[in-house]
Amino acid sequence: MTIERGIPVTSVPRTLFDLAATTSVDEVEHGLRESEYLQLYDRLSLRDLLARYPRRQGSRAIRECLVRRAEAPGRARSWLEERFLPLLREHRLPRPQLNAWVEAGEMWFEVDCLWPESRVVVELDGFAAHGTRIAFREDRARDRRLRVAGYGVTRIAPEQLDDEPEAIAADLRRLLV
């Protein structure tokens, strides 16, 4: 515990460790990725806490989060990306790099999900961000450039995650071979 503006608070790693005992692994993972993105570090890390309390409630969830982070670096920035990751886990598909940068010719693009070994990109598109004429046109130009650079781009809409998760998983399984 430390004092912040006169208020006793726990460090970010300790807060995540405590949350792991009462919330889902997905929520703890999101908190871990956000804390790293915001650079909220403490001299006492999650690994230190695991060493100190190896059997404490929540320690299994923290270990799982650390493995997931190592397997798929990056930060889920949208609710749609957060909904996509459990679908991958449920269907035992490999986790992508999140919000990764890809070079296509002389341009760089940030993509939602990247499997670099397979050169597969998944874009998770909500209508609010991609429903204008300009966005529609830019998305097509971007997809074309990525395709020329050897990346396959698959676009998934929010409704598809609800309506056709099995088909999405089957398609991704074929693409990731």
Quick structural overview:
The protein is 51% helix and 19% strand. It is an alpha+beta fold.
Summarize the helices and strands and which ones pair or pack.
Blueprint: E1 2-4, E2 7-9, H1 12-20, H2 25-37, H3 46-52, H4 59-71, H5 79-90, E3 97-104, E4 107-115, E5 120-124, H6 127-130, H7 133-148, E6 152-156, H8 158-163, H9 165-175
Parallel strand pairs: 5-6
Antiparallel strand pairs: 1-2, 3-4, 4-5
For the residues shown, what is the average pLDDT?
87
- Largest beta sheet: strand ordering: 3-4-5-6
Q: Quick one: how many beta strands?
A: 6
What would CATH call the homologous superfamily of the largest domain?
A: VSR Endonuclease
Stated plainly, the CATH topology of the largest domain is called Endonuclease, Chain A
**Cα separation of the termini:** 48 Å
CATH class of the largest domain: Alpha Beta
Distinctive features:
single chain; 4-stranded mixed beta sheet; 6 strands; Endonuclease, Chain A; 177 residues; alpha+beta; two-stranded antiparallel ribbon
Q: Your description of this structure?
A:
It is a single chain. With 177 residues, this protein is an alpha+beta fold. The protein has 2 domains: 2-71, no CATH class; 79-175, Endonuclease, Chain A (3-Layer(aba) Sandwich), CATH 3.40.960. 51% of the residues lie in helices and 19% in strands. The protein contains 9 helices and 6 strands; from the N terminus they run ββαααααβββααβαα. It has helices at 12-20, 25-37, 46-52, 59-71, 79-90, 127-130, 133-148, 158-163, 165-175; strands spanning 2-4, 7-9, 97-104, 107-115, 120-124, 152-156. A 4-stranded mixed beta sheet has the order 3-4-5-6. The protein has a two-stranded antiparallel ribbon with strand order 1-2. β4 (107-115) and β5 (120-124) form a beta hairpin. It is elongated and about 50 Å long. It starts with a strand and ends with a helix. The model has no long low-confidence stretch (mean pLDDT 87).
